[in-house]
Amino acid sequence: MRPFDPSNRRGGAAVLIACLGLAACASAPPDSATREPTTVERKQTMLLATERAIHIIFEDARTDLVHIQKQFEAEVAKAPACYSLASAEPGLEPFGVDRRKERATLVAAAASRREQQLKLLLEHYEKAMWTVACEAGRLEAGDGLGTRTGYVELDQKIDASLLQLAREVDIDGAIQAAEAASSNHVALERQIRHEIRGVGILSLYKSQPIRGTFGPDDEGQAIVAVFARAKPDPYDAKAAANGGTDAPPPGKVSFVQAVRRHVERGGLMVARTEWKLDAAATDASGTMARNSEVDPATHLASQICLPMVDKSDASFRQLLDHVLVAEYRTALRNDDNGELIAVIGWQVRWNIDWMGRMLVLVDPFDQVLADDLVLPRLLALERTGG
Hints:
Layout lengths: L12 H14 L12 H40 L4 E3 L11 H43 L12 H18 L1 H13 L2 E11 L3 E8 L2 E2 L7 E2 L2 E7 L7 H5 L11 E13 L2 E5 L3 E2 L21 E3 L20 E13 L4 E14 L5 E4 L5 E3 L4 H11 L2
Parallel strand pairs: 1-2
Antiparallel strand pairs: 2-3, 3-6, 4-5, 6-10, 7-8, 7-9, 7-11, 11-12, 12-13, 12-14
Helix pairs in contact: 1-2, 1-3, 2-3, 2-4, 3-4, 3-5
């Protein structure tokens, strides 16, 4: 990133001092050709010329301020998006902590650079204002006691201008904004809580619509599946042998997922794809990537699932003024025997307007599916190579 460079500004002190001299000559009234300007007239001309010079300096400072802010925003935009689970459940706190630390480190570095640049900006333009004002006072032989420029009015103008510049630069506000950007993350709230006797609790977490997922005006939605193992309650093998109905809790579990998309208009389906195992899975069996921060001894959490749309595809224009639905089936699988323990059906719905903007339609109908046939069929086909 190019550091703030105050050199070669059109508001440089030397250029503005020259302008002061020209202004003093050009500001004489038309009828002054037969007489010399009075002391009051010269002072008034000098004050007006200095004020114009300060205005030029301010415009340069504002231009540099905008440039510094854009540099900071560009660096923050490169920092990774962060997610957390809105849950007080012990064991889920570590979810997303690595990315939050990474983001905090990158934003802190960018904030430090910006703070240094803002301080340099203030120093540079404070020096430029005083240089111009002092030279103006010297040219007019100002001799005001206790003043820096020789004129009380000039000192007051510079003091007021520096206060205004400090307010606009607002270093303290920049520090607070950086702290907010550092800790900024998306919280996912639990939408489904399904208790499985003797096994644990299967949950689905969803975020509110996230602006800027595909473009500046587009929205997306993040999803995480979580399985919390049942609290320690040793399986009573003897009771089971005597007719007990509880099955032993699964040893190793994983999430598998399938997806399809369909298009609606006016509440009617106009196009639909076939169900397929999620292409973003870690293997051909639709296995979802696991979050490694969460302790598998107590919880299984998937990585963030963020359904995406390729808006650069030529076929996207056919979706204008339609509703696009990404529909998912996510199952908790017992890896010891391949059994699907429970299945959740959920979806992300977008309204796509004539401008191509995508807004999420929050769907409250995600649910546990007691008799899902989709994933068993897809997994059977995968095993048989069908």
